[in-house]
Amino acid sequence: MASNISVSPPVHRLQPGEQLDRSAFSLKVPVVGLRIPAARTTDITRSSEFKRQLLKLPKVKTVLQENGDEEFRVILLDYSTQDAMPQDLVELAQTNNYDIVQHGIDLEYDYWTANEILRSSLPEDLLEDMPTAFTITGHLAHYNLRDEYLPYKHLIGQVTLDKNKALRTVVNKTDNIDTTFRFFKMETIAGESDTVVEVNESGCRFKFDFAKVYWNSRLGTEHERLVSLFSSGDLIADVFAGVGPFAIPAARKNCLVLANDLNPSSTEYLSRNSIDNKVEDRVRVTTMDGRAFIKHAVQEAIDHPFENILPLQSSSQRAKQARLKLPPPDPLPVQRTIKHFVMNLPATALEFLDAFRPAFRSATNQELYNTNGMPTIHCHCFTRELEKENAEVDILKRAEEALGMSIANPSFHYVRRVAPNKDMYCLSFVLPRTIMQ
Ligand SMILES: C[S@@+](CC[C@H](N)C(=O)[O-])C[C@H]1O[C@@H](n2cnc3c(N)ncnc32)[C@H](O)[C@@H]1O
User: Fold this and answer.
1) Does ligand 1 lie within 6 Å of residue 424's CB atom?
2) Domains of the chain with CATH codes
3) The pLDDT of residue 53 is above 70
4) Ligand 1 midpoint to CA 282 (Å)
5) Is the pLDDT score of 177 beyond 70?
6) pLDDT at 376 exceeding the cut of 70
7) Contacts of 218 (CB under 8 A, 6+ apart)
8) Main EC class of this protein (predicted)?
9) Where are the beta strands (DSSP E) in 344-399?
């Protein structure tokens, strides 16, 4: 139930660029209380007559001990003055011989929410569309501030930092997305200028420089979904691997992974993350264009397969092995054919499908694919068709055009809406065997 006493921080509108003065947000709020015998506090505060009359301001104690007085307590009521109290409450207090006392609650900067502080600090004409949404990646929050809020960026950053104790850095995106490497240019607006973050996803730990590589925490479910389709021992080729959110969890479930990205910062962190997650022997990292990588991966698997890779064991499996003096597990079977290609570059990945025909045609030992089966391609893409049926037609048409052949039994997974008129999907299909002809 809302309090009868409505409080908001003092209005202290800042000029552009002016520093936040936290002391300007102190407020003394008048409240009435009842002086009651200390021994009866619990009975009174729980009684039906008084319970619903207690002060309902969030985060404010309703029972006070004043001046070290052991004998009495003051319980705060949900009224500013005695005049505001209902007459029957005044009479109830008098009948019980409880003194009605006037009290003042001191609310400071820390009491108010970020929204309340910004509402009191920003110019009135900017209050309607006040920025409230930011995304958190590790210790860093990032905003995409509209131009009119830029003169107040440090205020917005500082309040965000103050009110979210796990944050150390607040940045604002200064430009559109980098067209090739898909990361954002950003400027620190509060806190440390440290854009190297650490996040947990799919049970793995990822470290990367958010100012230099692509990362999107909203893709966590999609990363987990695809990895759940892989089986232990599968050979995976991740064409646009970023810092490893598909590659590393796949390797942790005993897949063997060829992981590639054109951005050298991405592959630097991808290699580091492989080490940190103890899968460096089963993740092979390259830094090349996606088309070249598709060709490289097909031949690399044939010429230089992963060999003598032991399956990762849980700590209980290792303990059991040591206890029973069991021999180490057999190495994972050698795989010379790729089971899954992952292609998460939704803006253009469909166009890269043209690389499969030359890659498979020029591969030596193609017959391995006749024996082991053709790989499944998982290709992420955007579409402006917002009806699922139309989206599927649009995606399939573009995929078949690029691949240069028709696709049998495609499956379409809706990932998320990325803009009001743009959806992200993942198209999955088994590469037609005729691609090798
Ligand atoms: C949308 S991100 C996906 C990264 C990662 N797979 C994930 O899910 O977070 C696309 C990645 O493709 C990389 N990239 C862009 N163009 C590329 C190209 N021509 N060849 C290889 N990688 C490319 C970018 O650097 C970026 O890391």
Assistant:
1) no
2) 27-107 (3.30.70), 114-199 (3.30.300.110), 216-436 (3.40.50.150)
3) yes
4) 20
5) no
6) yes
7) 416
8) transferase
9) 376-383
